[in-house]
Structures are given as C-alpha cells and as structure tokens.
From TrEMBL:
Taxonomic source organism: Methanobacterium formicicum
UniProt KW keywords: ATP-binding, Coiled coil, DNA damage, DNA repair, Hydrolase, Metal-binding, Nucleotide-binding, Zinc
Residues bound to ATP: 12, 32-38, 136, 809-814
Entry protein name: DNA double-strand break repair Rad50 ATPase
Residue positions binding Zn(2+): C457, C460
Coiled-coil boundaries: 174-221, 253-317, 412-453, 526-570, 646-742
One Pfam entry name: SbcC_Walker_B
Functional note: Part of the Rad50/Mre11 complex, which is involved in the early steps of DNA double-strand break (DSB) repair. The complex may facilitate opening of the processed DNA ends to aid in the recruitment of HerA and NurA. Rad50 controls the balance between DNA end bridging and DNA resection via ATP-dependent structural rearrangements of the Rad50/Mre11 complex.
Domain notes from UniProt: The two conserved Cys that bind zinc constitute the zinc-hook, which separates the large intramolecular coiled coil regions. The 2 Cys residues coordinate one molecule of zinc with the help of the 2 Cys residues of the zinc-hook of another Rad50 molecule, thereby forming a V-shaped homodimer.
GO MF annotation list: ATP binding; ATP hydrolysis activity; zinc ion binding
Rad50/SbcC-type AAA domain sequence ranges: 5-218
Length: 899
C-alpha cells in the first residue's frame, strides 16, 4: 500500500492537521513531544483501530468532545479512504473506494471496516505494525544487542514471543488441573473407611428403633390420664371465664352509668346557654336592615371617583392626538426621502457584498502563487540536481530528462549483457581450473604408488621393469606440468576478467543509484505547479475587474449615507409621532368614550342622592358605620349557627335519659347471674396443677421420642450419604482417568508450543526466507561481499574478499547496512514480499554520531522501497529526504508548519 494523505481532527495534540504524502523518502521532523509519533499512531488507528493509550477516550484532544482520523491510500491499483470518528461514548467508521473521479461508500462499522482493511492488505493490525513500522531503537538494537537479545527481538516481530507466552500460560492451566487431580485422588482415598463406618451405623439404627417403640407405649398410657384431667380442667376453665367476664361486665356497666349521668348534666347546661343566645339574636336583627343601603352608597362614591379620573385621562389623550397629527404633517416628506435613500443604500450594500470577497481572494491568490512558485523553483532545482548527478554517473551531458532516459534505456541492457558474458566466462574458467586441479590430483596418486613399488604395476598388477616404472612416472609428471602451465594461463585470464567485471559492476551500481521515478515525479509536480500558477493569474485578472466595480459602489454608498444623516432627526420625529398615535388610538373613538363617561357621572350622582336620603345621619361616618354593622352581622350569623343545635340537643337529652334507665336494669341482671354461677377458685387451681404435672411428664416423653427420632433421621441421612458416596466412587474414578488423559493431551500441546516445537519450526521456516531477503537488500548497497548467512539464532555472517566475517569484524557503515537490510528483510517476509511502504520512528536514536551518519548515507541511496516515512528530531536526516514536513507545538496544539 501507498499512503496518499492523512487528516487528524482533535486527535491527541493535533487540533486540525492535514498531511499530503508523496512517494520517496518523507521526513516528519520536530522536537521531542511535538506530536510526530502521533502521526504514525493515527495511521494505525485509521486502518486497524489500534492505539497505545489506555483508553480510547484519551485519544480525543483535551477539552474537545469529538475526534476523527481520515486516511487515503492505494492498494492493488485502487484508491481507498477510511474515516474513523470517536466521541466520549460512541464511535463511527466508514470505508470508501474510488470509482472514476468520486469516492463511493464501500462498508461501514468499526469491526466491518477493520476486517475489510485486513482482507485488502492481507494482514491484521499486529502484523502490519511488525512488518511496516520500525520502532525506536530497532536499528541500533540489531547492531548493539547481544545475540540472545536480537533473537528475542526478531522473535517478537515474527510473533514467536506470543507462542512463548502461550507456552508459559499453559503451565498455569496444567497446575490447575494437576491440583484437581490430586484432590480427586484424595477423595478416592477417603472412601476406604466408609464401609466399616456404614456397618457400625446400621447397628446403631437398630438400637434406636427399639428404644422409640418403648417410649411410644409409655406415652399412650400418659395420654389417657392427661386427657381425663384436661376435660375436668376445661369445664372449670369455662366457668372461670364466664365468672371473670360477668364481673368485668358489671364494673364496665357501673362506669358507663356514671358517664351517662355526667353527660345529662352537661346537656342541660348547654340548653340553658341557647336560651340566652336567642335573646341576643332578637336584639341584633333590626339593626342589620340599614347595612345594604350603606354599602351601595359607598360603592357608588368609589365608582364616581374612578369615572372622574377616566374623564381627565380621555381629555388629555384627545389633546395629544391633535399634537402628534400636526407633527406627522410637518415631517412626512422627510420620512419618505429617508426611506427612499435607505432602500438605495441597502441595494448598493447588497451589490457590494457580491464583490466584497474579491480583494481577500486576490491576496489569497497572490499568497498561494508565491508558495507555488517557491515549490516550483525547488522542484526544478531538484530536477537539475538529479539530472546533473545522473550525467556525472554516466559521463554524459544531457540537458533533458527524455534524452537521458532514452540513453539509459539503451546503455543499461548493454551493460547487463556485458556483465552476464563476463560472469559466464569467469564461471567457465573456474570450472576448467577445477577440472585441471582434479586431473593433477588423480595423476599424483599413481605416481606415489609407483614410487612405493618396484616390479609390479599398481593399477593393472602386471610385472614391470624399473625402466618402465620410471617412464610411467615421467609421463605422469609431464602431464601434470602441462596442466599447471595451462592453469597458470587460465589464472591470468581469470584475473583480467574479474577486474573487468568489477569495473562493470561498479558502473551498474552507479546506474542503480539513478532514480528516474523520482525525477519524473519532480517534473510532474513542476508541470502541475506551472499550470496552477497560470490558472491563478487568470483568476486574479477577473477579480481585479470586480475590485474596480466595488470601489465605485463604495463611493455611492458614502454619498448617500451623508444625505441620510442630514434628515435623520426629522425621520425620527415622524416615527415617534406615528408610534404615539398608534398607541393613543382613534380620535373619534376616544371622543365616544368621553361621552359615555360623562353619562355615567350624571347617573351616579342621581343614585348617590337617593341613597343618602335613606341613610341620613349615618353618612357622616360612612366607613365606621359600615364596619360596625358588618361586625354585628358576623355576630348574628355566629349566634344563628349555635342556636340551630337546639332541637338536636333536646333529642340527645331524651336519648341519654333512656340509656340511664336501661343501664340500671342491666346491672341488676348481672348481679343475679354472678350469684347463680357458684364458682370455687381453689378447687379450679388444684385440678389445673394435677393436669400440668401429667402434661409435663408427657412432654418429657415426647422430648425423648423426638430426640431419638431426630437421631434416627440423622443416622439415616448419614447412611444415605455413605451409600451415595460409595455409588459416586466409580464416578470419581472415571473422572480421574479422564483428567489424567486430558493432562497428557495438555502436556503434548504445551510441548508443541515450546522452543523445540512450533517455535523452532517457525524459526526454521522463516530464517531462510529472511536470509534470502536480507541478502538481496544488502547486495543493493554495493559492498564487496558475496553472501550473507543467518544461523539458528539469527547471528549474521558475511562472506567477502577476505573470507568469512561476523558483525564485530566489519566497519560501522557495513554493520549499519547489515542491520538495515536484516530489518527490511524481516519486513519483506512479513508482508509477503510486496513491500511498498515502511515507517521508521526515530531510526537514528541510540546510535553514535558515526553510525548515525552511516545510516543517513544509506537512506540517501535507498530506492528499493516506493514510500518511506521517517519520524525524527534529527535535522541531519533532511539531507536524505525527498519531502520534508515540520511539526511544531504551541500551547499544547501540534500543527504542520507551512514550508
């Protein structure tokens, strides 16, 4: 995948940051804590919803309620957008795909979008981070750390550490089931003594059963005696209850009679009070006839006062109406002129608003043009620099990219063909030298054997003369000398060919450093910038015409506003008078109201005269007289209420007298009944004691029985439990067997996850692939080494002109190159070999100055990965960058500094 853009809103310290990414090496530079690493985290969050914060809410900028991250990228030739939003309580995700010129919705929902991204990139979030994201210090660790530490680090990247963690965690599970197994074995061991205990408890059950039978016989005898005493006691109890109840009733009736006699006295007293109140009512009643007349007179006087105030108000309103109508007539023309000018100014201001943005747009276009011109200049300078360096590499002097590309397309295949021919010739000579060496070794063997024997051929075993033996040895030595001479000639030829191939390889390494793709991207960017500058110039010309129109409109507005100000006072007088007239109402209507008020005044005066004639002397202190009579009226009503209870009181007196007579008769009957009961309390107490003693004896027998029955029940339950345990023994034994089989299976699975199991297999499978990718990448750095090997612990061995070397034996620059190639090789394997993007977080951290510079020099030469994004605070890395983005932070907010 290639990232095209990233937009963060309220993400951590980024309030509103938008970044456009290009191919090549992009450097994101800034101070510690500026918010650089948050950009890499935003990429991981947008694609897979992965983040480093403890809670997802912590990703939202402090003080904000919502954050969002949108990423646009290409994969498999298609463009995609992923947008993720988050509030304090809810989240939203949507993925779009580019169809034509527009992005169309593809899928939505957090889990659905994450799954779609995983399917598209063929990796999940963890694999993406391990493959694409090179964490802080990983390059330095591959150089500096011990073999075991490097092995552990690579294991983490390959996911082997999760297998190790699973292996360790399974020990906890195994211990848990082992404890369960021990407990089961203990349970089974405890069953040994159960059978003997079962026999003893059976004998005890038999004894208890016999004891309960004996208790039952004795109980039956006691029950008969107890029932006889109980019947006698119940007869006496009943007579005692009747005696007690009758005595209590007698006392109650006496109290009731006393209460009735007291009530009779109270009622007769209340009746005497009512007679006195009736006399008071007769005295007050004649005075109350005058109250209504006085109240009507008081209301009429108040109404007259209000009508006089209304009359004064209406007269004033009529005078005000005449005044404001005169003001309207004097200022009407000013009002009409002001309204006309105001409409004209509003129309002009509307027209001005249509052109108002022209000046701002011109300034913005000039600012935009200035930035694009600077960018265009940089792009052209980079084109010239790259073309000049490329000409130096090939020793040419082309002044156009097209000419240089055409020459390179012809020169490169020729060079590759020459290298291939030289390599084949070198291999042929090496094979021939090897054959000559084998021939000489084969010839030396019979010579040694002939020197050891005298009369017999060591090959055919036939008899030979000493002369023949010497002749054979001479022939063999002659052939060896001829082979050695031929080998010497071939060696000279081989050295010449190898020197020639070194020159050709050196030329090829220089050609590989030429990046025509970047050159074309610069040219494309420059053409796009020039086109945008032309469009801006055209837009500025159109806007300048609008600015001229805008200036004319502003002059007209200024003149008309001056005219408007000169008549504003008359305009405001007109508006004030019109508003006052609207609130005062119609003149004719107010005149009619005045006539109605005058009529009301006359009518009230006539009515007041009539009432005063009736009231006469009471008019002198009208309020005091009304107050006195109202108080008398309240007293009158209160007395009427009390007197109204007279009939009810007479009725209650009669009823109370009847109750007194009935109660006295009931007391006489109760006294006769007590005498006829003939109750003896001492005899009753004696029978009760005999029954209680017999009942206590019976209760003791019941207790003995209950105790024995309880003991028998408990014994039966214990026997049942023993039987259940004996029956469950087989179940425990079966469970133990299954548990042992399960533990055996768990141990087998744990062995599979161990260092000698799947972990070893995964290392053995991945190591050759990583070794192959590391070798391919290391060769691109053009060091004089022929091979790179990794052992089982991922220790690196390289082979060169001086033979075999380890990391401690090579230079700092070569060591950094090996570490970078190894890390990128791991990335290639994890990404399935289709590596287009890699992100490095502070790659120079923990490196000394020399090794940091070596890494920077290597990154400058890198053209093997289409897109590399580096987050760093190291300004030296800017020399290796195709694109530089600076991040700064002010008042807690991170932002991209415009270049």
């Amino acid at each position: 995948m290639i990232i095209e853009s990233l937009h963060m809103t309220n993400f951590k310290s980024h309030r509103d940051t938008r970044i456009e990414f290009d191919t090549g090496i992009s450097i994101i530079i800034g101070g510690n804590g500026a918010g650089k690493s948050s950009i890499l985290e935003a990429v991981s969050f947008a694609l897979f919803k992965q983040y480093t914060s403890k809670k997802i809410e912590h990703l939202i900028t402090t003080g904000q309620k919502r954050m969002s991250v949108e990423i646009q990228f290409t994969a498999h030739g298609r463009s995609y957008r992923v947008l993720r939003e988050r509030t304090k309580t809810a989240s939203k995700a949507i993925m779009k795909i580019k169809e034509g010129d527009r992005f169309q919705p593809l899928i939505s929902g957090d889990k659905q979008v994450t799954q779609e991204v995983q399917n598209l990139l063929e990796m999940d979030g963890d694999l993406f981070l391990n493959a694409v994201y090179v964490r802080q210090g990983e390059i330095a660790d591959l150089v500096e750390k011990t073999a075991s530490e490097k092995k552990q680090m690579i294991g983490r990247l390959l996911g082997i550490d999760s297998l190790e963690k699973a292996w360790k965690n399974m020990k906890i599970i195994l211990d848990k089931y082992s404890e369960q197994k021990i407990r089961l074995e203990g349970k089974i061991e405890s069953f040994k003594d159960l059978k003997e205990g079962f026999k003893v408890k059976k004998e005890k059950e038999k004894e208890l059963t016999q004891k309960i039978k004996q208790i039952n016989l004795k109980r039956e005898e006691n029950i008969i005696e107890s029932n006889l005493l109980r019947d006698k006691k119940e007869i006496l109890d009943k007579r005692n209850v009747e005696f007690e109840n009758t005595t209590t009733l007698q006392e109650s009736k006496k109290d009731f009679l006393h209460q009735l006699e007291k009530t009779q006295n109270d009622l007769e007293k209340q009746l005497n009070d009512i007679t006195v109140k009736e006399e008071e009512i007769d005295r007050i009643k004649p005075q109350l006839k005058k109250l209504d007349v006085l109240k009507s007179l008081d209301d009429a006087l108040k109404d007259l006062k209000h009508l006089k105030k209304d009359k004064e108000s209406l007269n004033k309103t009529l005078n005000d109406i005449k005044h404001f109508e005169k003001v309207l007539d004097e200022n009407e023309q000013y009002y009409n002129d002001y309204s006309l000018l105001d409409d004209e100014i509003n129309n002009l201001q509307y027209a001005r608003d249509q052109f108002e943005g022209s000046r701002v747009l011109i300034d913005q276009y000039h600012e935009r043009k200035s930035k694009i011109e600077i960018k265009l200049k940089k792009s052209l300078e980079k084109v010239r620099d790259v073309l000049e360096k490329s000409n130096q590499v090939l020793g040419t002097s082309f002044d156009s990219v097209e000419s240089f590309e055409k020459h390179l397309s012809q020169f490169k295949p020729q060079l590759e063909a020459q290298i291939s021919e030289a390599s084949e010739a070198i291999q042929d000579i090496k094979r021939e030298l090897s054959n000559l060496q084998v021939k000489n070794e084969n010839l030396e063997k019979p010579i040694k054997e002939l020197e050891l024997v005298k009369d017999q051929c060591p090959i055919c075993k036939s008899d030979i003369t000493p002369q023949k033996r010497e002749e054979l040895i001479g022939d063999y030595n002659l052939e060896i000398d001829n082979n050695q001479s031929l080998a010497a000639d071939l060696g000279v030829k081989l050295k010449a060919l190898e020197n020639e191939k070194k020159v050709l390889d050196f030329q090829q390494s220089k050609i590989q450093s030429i990046n025509l793709g970047i050159l074309k991207e610069y040219l494309k960017s420059a053409d796009h910038d020039q086109e945008e500058i032309n469009n801006i110039d055209s837009s500025i010309q159109e806007l300048q015409k609008k600015v001229v129109v805008l200036e004319n409109i502003e002059r007209d507005i200024k003149g008309k506003k001056s005219d408007l100000a000169s008549i504003k006072a008359n305009y405001e007088k007109y508006l004030g008078a019109r508003g006052s007239l609207e609130s005062l109402g119609d003149y004719e209507e107010q005149s009619l109201k005045l006539e109605d008020v005058n009529t009301g005044v006359r009518d009230l005066k006539n009515r007041i005269s009539a009432l005063m004639e009736i009231a006469r002397d009471s008019v002198e202190d009208l309020p005091g007289e009304i107050a006195y009579l109202e108080k008398q009226a309240q007293t009158y009503q209160h007395l009427l209420g009390e007197v109204s209870q007279k009939d009810s009181l007479n009725s209650r007196i009669q009823e109370n007298q009847n109750l007194i007579r009935e109660t006295r008769e009931e007391l006489d009957n109760i006294k006769n009944k007590i005498t006829s009961l003939n109750y003896n309390k001492e005899n009753h107490e004696r029978v009760k004691r005999e029954w209680e003693l017999k009942n206590a004896e019976l209760m003791e027998l019941n207790g003995q029985k209950q105790l024995s029955v309880g003991e028998l029940n408990q014994l039966s339950r214990s026997l049942q439990e023993i039987e259940d345990k004996l029956n469950s023994l087989k179940g425990y034994e079966k469970e133990l067997k299954n548990l042992k089989d399960f533990l055996k299976l768990l141990n087998l699975i744990r062995d599979l996850f161990s260092k000698d199991g799947v972990q070893k297999d995964l290392r053995n499978v991945s190591r050759p692939l990583i070794e192959e990718k590391t070798r391919e990448l290391f060769e691109k750095f053009n060091f004089e080494y022929s091979d790179v090997r990794l052992d089982e612990d991922y220790d690196v061995t390289i082979y060169g002109p001086s033979g075999e070397s380890n990391l401690d034996m090579i230079s700092g620059g070569e060591k950094i190159a090996v570490a970078l190639a190894l890390r990128l090789g791991i990335t290639q394997v994890l990404s399935g070999g289709s590596l287009e993007l890699i992100m490095l977080d502070e790659p120079t951290i923990h490196l000394d100055a020399y090794r940091r510079q070596e890494l920077i020099d290597l990154l400058k030469k890198m053209s093997i990965i289409p897109q590399m994004i580096i987050v760093t605070h190291d300004a030296d890395l800017e020399d290796a960058a195709d694109n530089i983005m600076k991040i700064e932070k002010e008042e807690g907010i991170s932002f991209l500094v415009e270049s």
